[in-house]
Amino acid sequence: MSVLISKTFAGAGNRKTWTFSAWIKIIADTSKLYTLMTQVDGWAGNSNGGIYLNGESLQSYNLLANLNDGTNSRVSTTAQLKDPTAWYHIVYRFDTTQSTNSDRARWYINGELQTELAHANYPGQNYDANFNTAAAHGIGRHTDADNYAFEGCMSHVHFCDGYSYGPDSFGETDSTTGEWKIKTSPSVSYGTNGFFILKDGNSVTDQSGQSNNWTVASGTLTKTEDNPSNNFATGNPHYWTNSAWNAASLTNGNNTLGGSISTDTYAGIWSTLVMPKKGKYYTEFKITAGSSGGGNAYVGIATPESVNEASNAGKYSGYANMGGNHGHEYSIYGSDGQKYVKENGGSQTGSTYGSNVTFGTNDIICIACDLDNNKLYFRKNGDAWMNSGNPESGSTGTGALSIINHDYHMFICDGGGGTFINADANFGNGYFGTTAVSSAGTNASNNGIFEYDVPAGYTALCTKGINSF
Question: Does pTM surpass 0.90?
């Protein structure tokens, strides 16, 4: 269900000058319009105005501000937001008091002014936008209907009423990496209707000092550890979204795989981030429906080449294309209780794994991947690690599967030949779907929240985790 964050201002603010700033993480989906912030009064004629992500093509979005009827003050970028692994900082700077028309409506992405525009219908000088009025406003979708719903993550949403700010007020360039990074407590003014919400979680209580609190009018606003300062892995829709699988879906920040496909599709949740050739990483996958043994679900690690190798007119290559004699490596644990390993370009081999423990619906499969020592460990729920494994045994690798020194994705996928699985990934965001973990385990690295204890020395697959090694 989509989420609507709603507020009706007591009176109109400055309709000539204001700034909208937010950090967003997208879900690549179908060609449609996603609402960031909108003012809607019955959604009729010229009484609407909003700021949107515009999906003009599959898995590709530009930014659109439409503050009238589409003929006046319609400005959109040609730059496309395509990367579901990234947090984007977007700023829309509106100031019709400017004498130069291109200065009256300006888009910025990650600190850069967007000068190549798909629409450049600039407002007239001193034009009053159909926005920031004494009417219902919404964040996440239109206020009058469950349409144009945003699907993704938002953080640090600012609205500055009566002030025109550039992106450097909310972000800055990192002197070491050159990347655009967030200012978590910017020094800006907010004005009468201004606000600052979603600062450090899912709170819609205004942090600007203006007491312009918002309300979650419908849906569930879910907190996630994934944030602009620490980007967590999620499922990657670019590896599987295809019209041939239109019954499958990735939702909840790309961490939930759903669907009821009856054919062999091998779709799954593959991590957006790869584990580099060093470090120790932990994650959890939960089967929510479909797997009842018979080898129709697989969880493990695989090299990026295994995932990217296309077949069948370019569709995502899941477990089906990792088999055969392709020269890519993976190590996986099947719901039939078998381990499957393919390395050095050879054929896959399957064999009994530990006590041959099968898994199915409601089971949580934990992965600990030690790339300092090239060892891999699995466990089901909070039970002992498979094959009496000890992820803290270092180079000894007690009970481990030995792996090759490669970059790897973590994944869970449907294995075909049975009911299509549904599953949730917890890469450390603290949730399975929209349900928080029931008993958060210990985690010495302090990166991520997991259901079970994280082995000592391991971390979540996130940017701070990767950079800690």
Answer: no
